[in-house]
Each structure stands twice: as structure tokens, then as C-alpha cells.
Fold each of these.
Amino acid sequence: MTDSTAPGKTGINWAKFLEVYGIILVVIVMMLALAAIKPEVFLSAQNLTNILKQNASLALLALGMYVVIVTAGIDLSVGSIMGLSMVALAIASKAGVPWPVVLLIGPAIGIAVGWVNGVGLTVLKLPHPFIMTLGTLNVARGLTFLISNGAPVSGLQPEVRYIGQAYYSFGLPPPAGIPASLILVAVCAVGLWFFLEKTNMGRHIFAIGGNPHAARVSGINVDGTLTVVYVISGFMAGLSGLLLAGRTDSGFPNAGIGIELDAIAAVIIGGASFFGGRGTVMGVLAGVLIMGILRNGLNINNVSAFWQQILIGLVIIIAVYIDVLRRRASVRR
Amino acid sequence: MKKLLLAGVAVGALLGMMGSANAAYVLAMKGPGAGNPFWAAVEAGAKAKATELGVEVVVVAPPAESDVQAQITQIEDLIAQGIDGLALAPTDPNALAPVVEAARAAGIPVVFVDTRGINEGVTFIGTNNEVGAALAAKYLCDTLPAGSDVAILQGLISQSTGQARAEGSKKGLTDCGLNVVAEQTAEWDRAKGLTVTENILAGNPNIKGIFGSNDNMALGAVEAVKAAARTDITIVGFDANPDAAAAVIAGDMAATIAQAPGNMGGFGIQALFDLKAGKTLDAWIDTGTVLVTKDNADGYK
């Protein structure tokens, strides 16, 4: 590692390259392995489409969670926000509310709950975001059961379903093609990347994650920035509810139970630090893909769901351990 | 917090009726009846029977069907209150076994409804899920040419209901010469049913029939099949919930299997009443299953 950074030896800085693109290599290796095991199925256009659309809502949740984790926070409420959004927009859609309004319901609920999270953290000064978002996890899930009476609400307007269900086939036989949900994920990812890397507030978010006291001393509006962070996470969760409702044609009150843990896992596998201040948007998307490809690969090989859980657990541990080793190496240097 | 609240409600309801001279029976369900049509029907059946017999019924349920701990807590609190009978749908038969023993030790008659527990000598009142799943399998056998590829979406196979439906359908489908090419769990969930079906279709393009161990998963399969623009796949569910009945009428699903949840509640309270009166019961009181197709789906909407 030290050699490669010395000037004049090679043209490429391998340590830096691995730091940024190592996670992408993992995705490629996994894909190659699955392609070798089941070439006719894994590489089919239909299966690749499946992977993209099955993981779109998790990708949105993970992007929101990433912003929170960059500030060394955590948002446990995203699965409940997703469920609440789905049920609320399904009820509105069934009630004949005009579809452009229905589209806004999910994101609006997400923003509202995210704002409550931010206020709990910064105004009520609850000691850790774990506590505030654990509270809203329960409140939002309870509201979900309350407004739906515990029953699924099915049959949405086609316009509401569009973003979660449509795909552009480019002449491929159905159901293969580019899912509309992928485009939404791409737009959100690019937007988030721009926000974090190119705006002042984005830089402040990293500064808060690196050292909140230093950030406060240097004049950053820490409370305001943190509130925005939780609003972003809530917004993404509401949007992902819109995707899943469109995909399943239903708002069902159990939707998204426990999915916050998948989102956290994807962010961590993608190389973000639980202690804040570190991570990339690309890493998060790769983390989502690693979990998605692992599940898909096990599914198409008819491996039991129990093994999938065990393997995903191991992947989380191994991914973070590799990160620990890499960082130890760079510290020694 | 939810547990505390529910326990509080249950205790409050019990205190309210302790004053009355009527016998007080408890129906402990797996999930909240409010809104869930299945548990609502169980609850309604129990209440109708209670009115007929002139007894009180208190209904309790954990906030989610997976919340085993909350149900144990509820039952323990009920035993402490002293009740006249318990009709229990155990979220997890093994985990609930000790509290069922505790109830019987306290002299409280117990019957299982919907889901069979493991305790010896406790009457079970509910659907024979294996028979119901075999009924679904028979429908697929009658509809599809012999040798066709079919798939089974399993429920949680850690639960006896999930096991019975998986086994009953598998046996029925293989016995009549259909080719079961995929059996995967979608954990009773609509989104997972959709995802698993997408993956099954990718790996097995010749699938002609899908049995969803509950309607939620079958409706997820409907979405996957529609997205794949396949019109030659026969989908059969289980439970006959209103969404599934609508899908059967619309032609998206071919059939589903109806249980008789009203019977579970009604027979359950009758059984407790009979036990209290000193009668003995059969080990299994079958509440029956019905095949629901376009012909009779209207009644389940």
C-alpha cells in the first residue's frame, strides 16, 4: 500500500482506488460468481430487471439513512414512515382524491415525521436519535394500523402506481426493461450526491458527523442542519412508500416492518462509518445491490430463506471487518 | 408500550365485567380483529354465540401476529384476573404451551382456535389446513394438463399453519402428476410474494400454476404475472379475503380457499361453555373449508 502511494512508481494510486471503487469490485465479483453458477437465469434481462425493481424502495431508504448516519445519527422510523405513507396514499387513492395530490401524500408524510424527529432531537434535546426515532417508529406504525383498521387497502389509481410499476422495455419481452423506479432512484442519488458534495449545507453535514463540537464552534447551524437531515430521511422513506405501494397495488399496514435494519445494513456494507463523517452515495447504492444480488442469487438457486438471513448477517460483519482492516492499514501508514 | 396499552385495555374490560354474574370467557386472537376481516369474523362469531348463550366474551390480541411475547403477557395477566375459559389462537404453539398449562393448572378450561397448540388433551377448533391446501391443489390438478410446472409460495414454515398448507399442497400437486419446480417462502407478505414470484418466473419460464399459501402472497403473484404479461398462469390462494374475492371475480386469480372464521369464534365459545358444563369434547372440531371460484366469490367480497 505504501509503495503505490509513493510518487513516480505507478501512475495509479491503488489504495485510493480501492477506497473509492473497492465496493464496486465486490458487486462485480458477486455478479460473475452468480453468472457462473446459473448463467441462463442470472444474466437474463428478466432477472436483472427483477434485481433493479426489487431493490428500488430499499435504495431510497438507504440513501436517506446514509445522510443520517453521516451525522453519526440513526433513523429507526423509516420502515414505519414507509408503511404509513403507503396506507395513507392508498386510502386517498381509493377515496378518489386527484392523483397528483395522492403522489404528494407519501413524501409529505415523510417530511412531517422527519421534521418531528429533528425537533425531538434538537429542541427537546433527547439524548440520542435512537430514542426519538424509536418513538416515532412506534407512533407512525400505530397510526398506520389506526387509519387502515389493520386491513390492507388495495386498488390504486394507475397514475399513482406508475412510478412503482412501470418500466421501459426497449423491445425486450416483458417483464424486462428499465424500471421507472430505477430512474427515480438515480435522480435521488445524483441529487443527494450534489447536495452533500457541492453545497455548503452538505459540507456542514459531514462536518457535524466528523466533530459536532468543532462544527458548532465554527459557526455551523447544527440544529437546523440536523433537522434537515431527518427531513431528508423521512422524505426518502415516504417516496419509497410510494414505490412499494405502486409495485404491489396496495397499502398494507405491515409493510416495511424491520426494513430500517436492511437500510442500515446497506449503508454500513457500503462503507459508511457508524461514527459519522464518512461514506459515499455510490457506496450506499453498492451496499443495496450487494444485499439485493445476494438475496436474488440465493432465491434463483432455491436456497432457503433461513440461509439468506444467516448469509446477510455474515456479509455485514465481513464487510465492516474489511473496512476496519483497511482503515488500520491507512492509519499505520 | 403497545403491550402495556393492550394489557391495560384487557384488564379494564375484565374489571368491568367482574361485577356481572355471567360467566366470562376470553377469546385470545393472534392479531387485532379491527379491520382484519379474518379475525373480525372470528370475533363476530364468538360474540354472536356469547349473546345466544348469555355469557360475556372479552377479546384480546397482540398488536401483530408475530408478537409472541405480547400474547404470552396478555394470557398471564388474564390468568391472574381469574377467567371462566380461554379460547386461544396461539401465535407460537411452543412458546404459548407453558402459559396454557398455567391456565389449566388454575382450573381455567382452554381450547385452541384457528391454530393448534402442542398441549396434550386440549381441543382444537379450526380449519384442517392440510385438507384446505389439498382442495386448492385439486383445483390446479383439474385445471392444468398433467406434467405442468407449478410453484408453491409457502407461508412462515416455522408455524403449523404454514407447514400444513405447504405439505397439503405439495402432496396434492405431486400426487396428481403436476411438477412442483419451486417451493419458496414469502412469509405471508404481499411484497415478498411479488418478489419471490418474479424470481421464480425468471428461473422457471414454463410455470403454469401457482399456489399461494395465503391470499396476500397470491395477490403479490398476480402482480408479478401481470408484469410478465403472462395470461396462461393459474393462481390459487387461501383465505378468501375481500381483495382475493375481487381478484377472482376480475379473473386475475382463479380460485381461493375459504375457511369459516365465524365458526371458529362461535364453536370456540360453545366449546368453553360445554367444558364448563362438564361435557367432554372431541380432540378436533373441524370448522371446514370451501373452494371459492367465480361462481361463489361474490359472497366473500
Amino acid sequence: MRPYWSPYLAGVGLGITLLAAYVLMGFGLGASGAFAHVAAHLENAVAPGRAQANPYVAGYLEAGRVWAQWIVVEIVGVVIGGLLGAWSAGRLRWRLERGPRVGRGRRLLFAFVGGATVGFASRIAQGCTSGLALSGGAVLSPGGWTFMIAFMAGGFVTAWAVRRVWR
Amino acid sequence: MSWPLLLEGTPALLAGLVLGVGFGFFLERAGLGDPKKLLGLFYLDDFTMLKVMFTAIAVGAAGIGALSAAGVVELESVAIQPTYLWPALVGGLVLGAGFALGGY
């Protein structure tokens, strides 16, 4: 298992990727939008009437087929890139990352509640740590920087409250 | 040729796939596939996330700024995230809380 790269080296690689996105596409990298597209299409598959009557969900459906959405394809790339990175460094294995004081069931429960919370919050903010903090940060968007500061405040307080899950 | 290219259709999707691979690869190489490492910022014992994110932001901002100053990239064609103050504040707080619970 090879050691991780210097965070500065990885940051330069990520920064060049981000710059390439802006130069090629005219916009930056993202993540949560892909989940919103997939969720809208899932709701449309299960309850089409309800999905199409909701203007917010209908907006995602009007964008067209889910596999033709740029951000969905980009997130597929993220999964492939993560796998490539882990595999080529000998880190690829099946495991549940957790702190030493938490059981598997509790960790998974926290993961589910945390994931749902992140998904909900990304719709309030119209983005997440990728699209707002990282990409918005690089184009000096005041909204992006505001989001980043609020994100760190929310994370800081909550992390101390759930210290037993991670440390 | 004017930049940004503003790709559409299949070239856009191919670019998205390749850019996504880079995104995932560099995050993994930094060790940010591990939530314990990601959350180090909040426990003040591992600042990898901050170092990676701010280095990437600095490289991206400097790159866009330099390409714009050189007349290569037209800033008018670059999508800047609109600012919604309260949604950014409330959404950021809640997203940070969820991130600390779930780990990502």
C-alpha cells in the first residue's frame, strides 16, 4: 500500500482539473446535481404524476435523459477515477471506514442520516462542497465563499457532538 | 478559437467523464476517500482537506485569472455561481452538519 500524495501535489492536480473544466466547459466541477438528476428520475419512475406535478422535480426531468446529463457522466468519472487511484496504489479493498469506538450498524445509520442531510442541504444551497465551495471558490463567487464558511461552522460544531463516531 | 470552448453534446459528455476521472483520482490520491481524514479539519488533527481544497482553488483562480488577463479566456462566458446569501448560509450550515454525521 503506497502512501498518499502530498496534499499540495494532489491539490495542484485537482486545480488543473478544475481549470480544465472552466476552459473546456465554461463551468466548474460538481457533485450534488448528479444525485438530484438521478433522484428526480427515480421519483418519475415510481410516481410519475407526483414527480411531474412538482415544478422543482419537473425541471430536472425536462433536462432530458439522465445519462445525457453532464454532471451525471462526470460523477461516473469520479467513481472510475477514485477506483483507479486506489487500485494503482494498492489501496483497493472492501471495508467500512469508521472510528475505533463505533459499531458497524451505528456507523451505517449515521452515514444514512448524514447522507440524507447533505442531499437536502445541497438543494437549499443549490450546490455542495464541489460546485459551490471548490468551483465557486476558484471564480471568487461570494456565494461560494459564504457557503464554505457556513459549511465549516456547521461541520465543526456537529463533529464535536458526534466525536465518538470518528475518533 | 475562443475559450471557454463551451462544449455541447457528446464532446461535452466525454470531457465530463475525463474531468470526473481526474477529480476522483486526485481526491483519492490525497487520501480524501477516507472520512476520518476528511473530518480531520473539524477535529483539528488532519488538515489534508483544507490543503487540497485551497491549493486547488488557488491554482484554478490563478489559472483563470492569468488566461483572462492574457486575453485567452473570456470571463463573460464563464458561469459564476450566483450568490444567494441566506440559502448559502443555511444550506452550508446544514450540509456541514450532515457531512460530519455521514463522513462525506
Amino acid sequence: MKRRRLTRRAFLTTASATLAAAAIPSASSQELGEPPRPYGERSPFEQSARFLPPSITPASSYSKTPLQDMFGIITPSGLHYEVHHSGLPEIDPGTHEVMIHGLVDRPLIFTMDDLHRLPSVSRIHFLECAGNSGGEQIGRPAANPQRSHGLLSCSEWTGVPLRTLLDQVGLKPDAKWIVAEGMDAGRLARSIPLDKALDDVLVAYGQNGEALRPEQGYPVRLVVPGWEGNVNIKWLGRIHVVDRPFMTAYETGHYTDLMPDGTARQFTFVMEAKSVITRPAGGYQLSGPGFYEITGLAWSGRGRITNAEVSTDGAKSWLDARLNEPILPKAVTRFRFPWWWHGKETSLQSRCTDETGYLQPTREELVQVRGLNATDHYNGIKIWYVHEDGKVGHE
Amino acid sequence: MNKAGLFIICAVIALAAPTAAQTQRYNLGHPATPEKIRELDISVAPDGSGLPRGHGTVEQGRIVYQTLCANCHGDRGQGATHYPALVGGQGTLPSKNPVRTVGSYWPYATTVWDFVHRAMPYPRPGSLSANETYAVTAFILYLNGIIDEKAELNEATLPRVKMPNRDGFVGDPRPDVPTRKLNK
């Protein structure tokens, strides 16, 4: 309560200072400001927020990141997207444990203290829900970047390489997969091939310099770089080393893409190269002809982004955008592109290429292969339409 | 190079060597006892490993279902606006309006058991006993015409149930869109 009052007072003080400054210059400009506070909050003028859909099952729902309001590549932890299926558990890190068992020489239980003592790394990676922008594929384009692509965020994650933990328990020769399980109410579980587990998976307890947020799996989660969000098990409690996938509900009944011939793809782990212009984009009002910087995000689950291109003339021509450093593997890359709007109707779109040489496809190219029944793992080009009045929209 | 420099180089090599090894052990973590593993391990594989002993009939499942599941999924598993249908859709997967349900889509009966046991019923996940889970799984499979009305499921019979879409899954062929080189 105290913090809320302070914030409100800070807002009133700032607002009246602004008004007073306009009316009687300098009269109130020497009032003292607020003292330091133990945990900082953004300016009360900043109202950017996650989008929450109306839901009658709020414990099984999602929130979307306001990409149009973001700068740089790091998503503030309080605006990171979330999807959960059984609500947010409240977990005491003092009693939380991670058990590793199955096809191992020495089944072990790690406390949070154990995890903090082990050699750690920090890496920047994106997380993207498999279903991000799935509505675009089936012909329901969303009106702004948050609604169309907001199941994407990017953070610096700190933790222990899963490989280090697997070294502690010792793998038996027939170990081929792991089943990772969360300690949320529904004990969400996913199978992950051992090759990936030994490659770059993190058992992460840090997010953007502080402990994970509860929405992101506090006190510890898996980060599976470049792979669909659902396998990045939050509230990690158990890793079962096994010899084959266990075919859990979220790798059979869900997150498998149904093709036009009635077959479904499994396992579709990697999130392919994708980009979106975040500003000016749907919901933005151009204030008149003149200069605007176009900016957006590009990312690939297969590695680094090598190129991002922008078209401002309905895909007749494509020009390279400037990629902002750092350009990191399996992280979002910020691109920027100078643009003079001449006051005419046009469209804005971006496409990216990753280090494997893969070029982000159009929606039509994807639909031709995958049809209209699959809504996960969609990575088509997103088009924003600029109207003569300066309004930018999705149609 | 003086002796001190040589000593530092040797010390650095000595310290670096263990971290370079693939299987460095730190003696952290404590043993997971068989009892602890039994307590926490709830995962079930398609061959039935992990299934606890137990049994349930379609008739018993009907009662569990009507009491705990019908409120959201409908009295015959038909679903509702915000809740998935559990029944129907067989033969619709290649159509323009595919209906993906446990009956038409899910490839393994063990997955139904595992998911119901860990994550259902929605307001109180994990509250069903093993016998209740066998029973309600039997009822859902019966509603889909997959097992007989007189059937009973247990740890031996459940993995032998062949689901209609068992062979409906294919590997990931991506990149599936022809990769074009940039044309500049």
C-alpha cells in the first residue's frame, strides 16, 4: 500500500509541476522530489502493459508482450509474455528441489543452493510460443504487433548448463531423451532429445539480472534455446532420463501441426526465422509526411540473423535494414531502416535471413505447403498497411 | 621468462584443465532415494511403463466423468465454447474443418491416462486416484467407440489399446518451403 501511495503522490507532484511550469515558470520547480526507494518502478507516465485476453479459465491463459513499445532487444521482465496451463504456482526456493533420475548412474536431488554453487553462464535468448501469430496463417491478421506477435520475448538468462547437471548424475548408454516436468498444478511435462539437452539447454534461475519472475518459472526453469516455448519447462522439479519420448499431451494432442493430407508433424521443436516491424506498425498514427525510422525484430531458432530487409512499396523492392549489435544466436536482433513517407497509401513489411541461408517466407508460400489447419510454428511475413490519413493498420 | 611467470602459467593450466573436461564432478546434490523417486515420478510411457497398478471400468468411469468432467466437457464429451471436445472427429483430419479430439487425434491411450492423472480435472489437477483415472479413461475411450462398453482398463490392458490416429504422425520436414537465395 505504501508503495502505491508513493507512486500516486509522485505522479501528482510531477503532473502539477508540469502544469505549474507552464503557467508560472519556476514557481514550483524547486520542490524536492521523491527519496530513493528499495525497488524501482517506471514513471507513472509509462502505461505499456501486457495484453490479457478475456478468459473464463484465467489459470489456463496467456499474456502478450507490447512489442510496439519496446526498445532494443531485452524484454523487461514485467512485460515478458506468459502462457500457462494450470496457473502460477507460488514456490518457496528454500524448499524447492530438482530431481534427476532414470537412466543415470547416480540419481540426485539439487537444492537451489546447489544450483547457485555450480558453474553458471548468462546468455541472451528469445522465447516464442509455438502458437505465436498463428492467426496470421489462417487468415485472421491481428491489428498490432502485440496482438500478432506478442507471444515473443527475449531475456538474459543465467543458470547452469543442463549438461553440467547430467554430468553429475552420469548417463547410462541407453539414455536418449529426457522428460522435463514442472511443479505447477498440472505438472506440465515435455520430452526433449538428449542431443539438445547436452548442447545448449540451461537450467536457469536468473532473468535480466535478478531472480526469475513467477510467470517465467520461479525459482528455476529450463531454457531450450530456439525451440518452441512449451518445452522450456517452468518451475522445473524433475528431469527423467529415458530411452524414448514419453508422448505427453503437449507433444501429441497439442503443438503438432496438422497438414492438409490429415497427417500431423511431430516433433516440431525449432522456431524458424521470422521478423516483424514493430514501429510504425498496426495501431500507429503517422503525424504527417516526413521522416520516420522503421524498426523491428528478427530472430531464428537455428542461429544468428544475417540479414533483415524492409519493403515500403508493397514488396516490389527490398532494401537491407541496419542490424543493431549485438547479433546473437537464438536471440532477437533489432533492425532499423530510414524511411521518408510521402503521404501516399503503401505497405510496410520485413523479411529476414538466418545463418543457415533460410529466408523468411511469405504467408502464401507457407499456406501452400502447410494448408490452413496448422496454426503453430507460423513464421510468415507480416504486412502493415499505411493509409493516406497516416493510420497504420493490418488491412 | 622468470620463475614466477612460469609458475603462474602452470597454475592456470592446472586450474583450467578440470573445467575443460566433459565430466567434471562437483559433489553437489544429494542422492534421490528409491522412495523419493517413487513419490515424485508420475510419468507414463506409451509402453505402459510408469503406470501404477489399478483398474477401472467404463461404468465406473461414467460416474467419475458425470461428477467431475461433464460440467466443462459436456455430458457426452462434446465440449463447449471454451473447453475442448473429447469425442468425435474421426475421419475429419484431412478435411477443411478437422475436429481434433482424444478419439480422432491423440495417438496413445497412455497419454490420456497420463494427462488426466496429472492435469485434470481442471480446478483440482492431480486429485484423481489411479483407479478413478483408469475408469474415466475407459469411459472417454468408450465414448469414442475405441473400447467396448463392458471393458475394464488396467496397467496391462491400457497400453494395448490402439488409438485410431496411432499412425497419423510424420517427422518434421522443415525447412519445408523452398529456400531461396537472396537475389541482389
